Amino acid sequence: MQTCNSAICMCPDITAPLDSTGIGKAHVCGVRYCTNLPTSGIFVRVYPFIRLFRQIFGFAHRKLAQPKRRISRLLIRPRLTDYHDIHAAQADLDFAIPFLDEDIPLHLDPFMLWRSPSQQDQSMHTGLVNAFNHLGLLASQGKEDEAITTLIIASECDEVGLGTSLTRKGKRIGSEKAKEIVALFEAIPQYQQNGFRHFEEIQFYVEGISKDRISDISCNFLKSFLIDFTIDQCEKLGVPTQRCTVEHVYDYRANRFVREDGVALPVNPENGAPIILVPKRWMRFAPWISYDDYYEKHCPQDEISHKPEDLTRVKVLNYNRRNYGMVEKYIQAKERSFEDCENDPLFSQIPVTSAKRVFAQIKKLPTGKTGGADTKYENLMGRLLPSLLYPKLDFAQEQARTDDGVSIRDLIFYNTRSTSLLQELMDDYASRQITFEMKNVAEIGRTHFDQINRYLTDDLGKFGVFVTRHPLKRAEVTRAVNLWSSQRKAVIVLTDSDLEQMVEVFDSKQRDPIDILNKKYVEFRRECP
Length: 529
Description:
Distance between the termini: 58 Å
Helix content: 40-55%
Radius of gyration: 29 Å
Structural class: alpha+beta
Strand content: 5-15%
Strand order of the largest sheet: 7-8-9-10-11
Number of strands: 11
Number of helices: 22
């Protein structure tokens, strides 16, 4: 049962409970149904006409009330902030902006809490490890089933959306895998006596435990703090929230997972699932303490097998179980080098020297497709442009599309609206995202304009950028102006010369490379009537 909050509801009591079984008794919102309608008198005589009115008006209301849901499906890799029209650059926020339809390719690394100078972070790491070590206590008290159930719950945290899933949905570990992990408290004397100091060590003994599991277990045991962090960040940014039920919040007093109702969190507009934000300062692509790093730099491989082809992961894990001292030495080495452990940003700019080197390679490429020059051009641009335009434009992704049998490579950016130019592109052309179409051709022609014209729509925005080798010929400048005059679509061009300027200002740090984009747009508008 729900309550209608519509200010224009025609029900005599808009606070009445709503029931989806009330067929034909819809509120004007067209979504909910009222069970509080009169059943006699004049209302019954006029109700058929009111019902018809509601159906017509309700349909129109639904169309107007849900534009963002449609937008979220049209955007490339839509993010929570883009859906709610919050124009904040990733670099300016304390959390990683979650995608709506896939995971963020980062993981919460518990070592980041351990090495943090913040007493709050350190205390949370202690609480996290204590929660994990409590599983060993349960097992020692004959409550192994309870420990296994708790670990299974902790092994997946869909609300945070971290990892590599394309659906924001993961899968928990099975009971056998959980039993194998819990058994470590009995199998290895050091853990039986003292517990884990860094629970990430489980990946050195159990097959199938990787960075995803370490991250999800951490998030679940820290979920109570992450909820408070999310509420605080949403209040600061103005992100809308809804009252949600959050499953599996760890209660440190009861040492078990509980359900919390009525938690004000942002939700995924596509399915209503709650979203929890995670501080950027805790995130890495791979944990500081990892099996791959141990295997490559610390594992005594010759002691395990003299034949490299026989050195399987299973043999390494079995060796570690019998030789805890090797793992302990590795952990101590990682703790000593903690100052080298830094969080990984979602996007990293290439250094200035690399930018110059990439541009030099671009200038040497011939136009056309000879020797795969077009593909090389696209790949090099895919490295250069996101770095030059960051953080004013957040990189969304590189995308291929086909237009009349022609393969077209685009670079898609989120419009942060952090400059007057970017705000104008949103206001005048509805460009929530900006497309850069790469063309390694001798000259842009009519066919290219026809392609981009079909691509620039009301839904995707009417501003686009050609990235090509040479300036437009006068006929094509006229074509671009006519496109703006007739359809209010703006297409500007970045050439090799413009890119060279962008690299120069990127090097000098005295101006921002996006200023060159602004200059090109101003020049284009001067040509327009």
